[in-house]
Amino acid sequence: MEKRILLTNDDGVNSDGLWAAYEALLPFGDVLVCAPATQQSAVGRSISIFEPIRASQVMHNGKIAYAVGGTPTDSVIIGLHALNWNPDIVISGINIGENLSFESIMTSGTVGAALEAANQGFHGIAFSLQVQDQGDKFGHSISSPGMFLPVHKVIGEIMTQILKHGFPEGVDVINVNIPSHVRGGYRITRLAEKLFVTGVEERLDPRGRPYYWINGPLIRDAKEGTDVHAIAQGEISVTPITLDCTAYSGTESLRRSLSGILSL
What we know:
Layout: E1 3-8, H1 16-25, E2 29-36, E3 55-60, E4 63-68, H2 72-82, E5 89-96, H3 101-107, H4 109-119, E6 124-129, H5 149-165, E7 173-178, E8 186-188, E9 199-204, E10 210-215, H6 227-232, E11 236-241, H7 251-257
Parallel strand pairs: 1-2, 1-5, 2-4, 5-6, 6-7, 8-11
Antiparallel strand pairs: 3-4, 7-11, 9-10
Helix pairs in contact: 1-5, 2-4
């Protein structure tokens, strides 16, 4: 039985990664593309609540898609509630650039879209492809022949397994990261703490007034078992994510810290 799939991303509706995912998903069912009209990287789960949202039907290489004048979260909401698409699963990606660690998934529009799908009651999977040059994340046309071949294979294998065995219990989103050069197999991972060493570069405008770029080098490796380490080893990182951010292990410590004001 064919599945209904909602496909979105944060790189924009014309991203080569999005359409590589589309081709990989076609064997599994009916795919609706509903994605931001423009580049929306690093907007997290931002939602447009103070302005109207337009969704325009567009053609991309002969295929119909919906270009949403908003964020990845907006695109998921429009796809589900305005276009009345009731998918079996929501796929976000293929993001050009890895989405690893606490730090990255909190800001990633790709993961944010999958989280919004989960928040709306649908299973979500986010797919991201590592790039060696971080500048490539925002390049206008960076695709090279065969660039998405390993991701095409990964999407096919993961979709086959999920459809066969079902979406894992207790998991809201599956975050999949593929190294630019796959040298190993699949690895179930946990989130590393950080992906970047945060820095700020100050520059001066032509009038001598300062302005700033947030920057910093990439962290190339982390503890064994983390998503960052798996990618460093050339393995495909598969991380289960939950919407529940409650720090259960800290409950008793918090209770002691607030013991003087808590109700009995």
